[in-house]
């Protein structure tokens, strides 16, 4: 899987200014404290999910008072939404970082593989970041901030579809927001990772993910694309080079 470029606890520590003696000081430029809080909250969410985002615990970690921390957020939920939104941004960046496949010279099959790669990357994010992904899903339907960030994931995938429509891979006018079978596959596989239903970091899990997505992406395809896909044996995982 591609590693998401997301903040870690080390990043949060670096964000806190230090004095000449090496101790953290309580002096920040405008915006620095807010970002330091978000970085620390994100690192905690990646480890333990939403329950770990507690401002009175985060504040001393970055060397400020809880009162100073609360000045930057109307309430705890605002911070939770910010961290969830950044999660969807990281998911979007993970998809965008995947190079278009060169595994085939058939533009129709290549378009399908690119969408398949994107779907695998979304599930892969949940496999790699189960606590964070669970929090993102739980806030998606109740926060406009999170919903807007979540939409950016759909938009980058829609761009892949739009290019594939031009190549004849996907049905004309296809919009991903109405593709319930595809999202059911992605969300269901992701939930298995988020909630620890089954081990999802194994070779057999990779094969199951790929097989499930291949089945649930079928409704999006033209007959030509279905034939092109049926003519090859696509491996599990993200395909970017000549592997088929």
TrEMBL record:
Residues 31-91 form the HTH tetR-type domain. Residues 1-27 are annotated as: Disordered. It comes from the Bacteria. Residues 54-73 bind DNA. InterPro entries: Homeodomain-like_sf (IPR009057), HTH-type_TetR-like_transc_reg (IPR050109), HTH_TetR (IPR001647), MT1864/Rv1816-like_C (IPR025996), Tet_transcr_reg_TetR-rel_C_sf (IPR036271). Signal peptide: none annotated. The keyword DNA-binding applies. Keywords: DNA-binding, Transcription, Transcription regulation. This is TetR/AcrR family transcriptional regulator.
